[in-house]
Design a protein that fits this description.
The structure holds two protein chains of two kinds. Chain A is mainly α. Helices cover 76% and strands 0% of the residues of chain A. Chain A has one domain (2-251): MetI-like (MetI-like fold). In chain A, helix 2 (21-53) packs parallel to helix 6, helix 2 packs antiparallel against helix 8 (133-163) and helix 4 crosses helix 6. Chain A is elongated, with a radius of gyration of 20 Å. By secondary structure, chain B is an all-alpha fold. Classes of the chains: A mainly alpha, B mainly alpha. At the A-B interface, helix 4, helix 8, helix 9, helix 10 and helix 12 of A face helix 3, helix 4, helix 5, helix 7 and helix 8 of B.
């Protein structure tokens, strides 16, 4: 108990200021937001096009998943010791690139599967109504794929905000800075405080995006159908690393 | 870990002379990496199986188990390593293993439950009709039928753990993570590249081994699995 009260004291004493928890949390969120936005642009774009045309998707999804076996720490440090990259933005660029590689696969996979899994009958019906290919994509395939696209964004964002902690190791000042400074100086209170705040930030990210995911899911899809579909994705598409976010919520009551 | 870096104007991505003279260090890093991974997956499975079976048999246990494991899974690994340190020991292998095991546990519980849920009711009724006891049905019918999902979980858990082990370098363990960190600290490419390539290869090899094991364990699934 004494230890935890020291941690609470440390956090309250170091909340404000340029090196405080607040500024460093904001830094971590900024890095995460930049990475997820860029990865969403690329991942959703490529995933939707592949899903719509149905060509090359298997190769793309599998190579994206295989790329996830690369440890982020290795990619991050490798980029950080490139003089042209490592010195840019106090480690921002190296962190951005390493995290981008982490974020694209789940987004791409989910966007691809989401569009690909649209019922063939629904697609034919849209065509029969006289919709052009872009209309089918924009008015039928994308809205139906949206819940899965959001699930991909949620997975990516949670992984990125968690792994962004490592960016502190290559001198980007975020919540990880408390952890690494604490580890270096054997200041266990500081290390624990950093770890605690990182956990809180990750849980908040997950909660916010879970709410967003629910909000974009059409009411009719919220229970049975969606659960079955997303579970199928988890089993098929995750060939190498980690789960898609969806099975967790699919297994729960909500 | 001691790595000698001779600073030269342009350090190539890999220096084979460094690899050759550090074979022992590299091999022992691979060995430690493999050991940390194997313990986490085996212990995680040993705990996950009874937990999942219990949650499957007793519906009241399921919501808390799923909720707690979902929340735990969101906690970043770096954070978990440092959060349990005050209890499990600073810079200790116990800390590393407990954190790694809890991640494999979460993945496995979820997959075992999904596999058991997918056992068709008719099959279970047929087993009961043949006079199987609940235990016999579980061992002879339910778990074998859940094996594809269990193997899928084992694959994800194993490959994930290989990646997570590198992070334990920060709390003094780490296997290949140690190479990566020493490379960064010395501004030297070779150890990072070796650590990266070997951990990808290790993940791939373990994944392939599990695919093979599944192939052997599920003779009835081979026909439909041909693509």
């Amino acid at each position: 108990m004494h230890f935890l009260s020291q941690v609470a004291h440390f956090i309250s004493q170091n909340w404000g200021g340029p090196d405080g928890f607040w500024v460093r949390s904001v830094n971590q969120i900024e890095l995460t937001a930049a990475v997820v936005a860029a990865a969403a642009l690329v991942g959703i774009g490529v995933g939707v096009v592949l899903g719509h045309t149905g060509r090359g998707g298997f190769v793309a999804v599998n190579s994206a998943n295989a790329a996830r076996a690369i440890p982020s720490l290795a990619l991050l440090t490798l980029l950080a010791i490139q003089p042209a990259i490592g010195l840019k933005g106090n480690g921002f660029l190296a962190s951005f690139l390493a995290l981008f590689a982490l974020a694209v696969p789940p987004i791409l996979t989910n966007a691809y599967v989401g569009v690909r899994n649209v019922d063939a009958d629904v697609r034919s019906a849209a065509r029969a109504m006289g919709m052009t290919a872009p209309q089918v994509l924009g008015r039928v395939e994308l809205p139906l794929a949206l819940p899965l696209v959001m699930a991909g964004l949620r997975t990516a964002a949670v992984e990125v905000v968690a792994t962004a902690t490592l960016a502190a190791y290559v001198s980007y000042a975020d919540l990880g800075s408390f952890i690494f400074a604490g580890l270096n100086t054997q200041n266990h209170v500081q290390t624990f405080a950093g770890g605690f705040m990182v956990a809180v930030l990750a849980l908040l990210t997950d909660l916010v995006l879970a709410a967003a995911q629910r909000a974009v899911t059409p009411v009719g899809l919220r229970r049975g159908g969606q659960a079955a579909r997303t579970r199928g994705v988890g089993a098929d598409a995750t060939t190498t690393r980690r789960r898609l976010r969806a099975p967790a919520s699919a297994a729960g009551p909500g | 870990m001691h790595v000698v870096a001779h600073k030269i104007p342009a350090d190539p991505l890999i220096r084979w002379d460094w690899v050759n003279s550090n074979k022992g260090v590299i091999l022992s890093a691979v060995g430690q990496h493999l050991e940390l991974t194997a313990i986490a997956v085996v212990v995680g499975f040993a705990i996950a199986l009874p937990l999942a079976v219990a949650a499957w048999k007793v519906p009241a246990l399921r919501p808390p188990l799923v909720t707690v494991s979902g929340l735990l899974y969101v906690i970043p690994s770096v954070a978990l390593f440092v959060l349990i340190q005050p209890i499990t020991g600073f810079f200790s292998i116990t800390t590393a293993e407990i954190a790694l095991t809890s991640y494999t546990l979460l993945i496995l519980v979820r997959n075992i439950l999904a596999g058991l849920d997918a056992v068709p009711d008719q099959v279970r009724e047929a087993a009961r009709g043949m006079g199987y006891t609940a235990l016999r049905e579980l061992v002879v019918v339910d778990i074998p039928m859940a094996l594809p999902s269990i193997f899928a979980g084992l694959r994800v858990a194993t490959v994930t753990t290989v990646g997570l082990v590198t992070i334990t370098a920060f709390i003094g363990q780490g296997g290949l993570g140690q190479l990566i960190i020493s490379g960064f600290n010395n501004n030297f490419h070779s150890p990072i590249v070796v650590g990266l390539v070997l951990s990808v290869l290790l993940a791939g090899a373990l994944d392939a081994a599990l695919v093979l094991a599944e192939h052997v364990a599920l003779p009835w699934a081979r026909v439909e699995r041909v693509r």
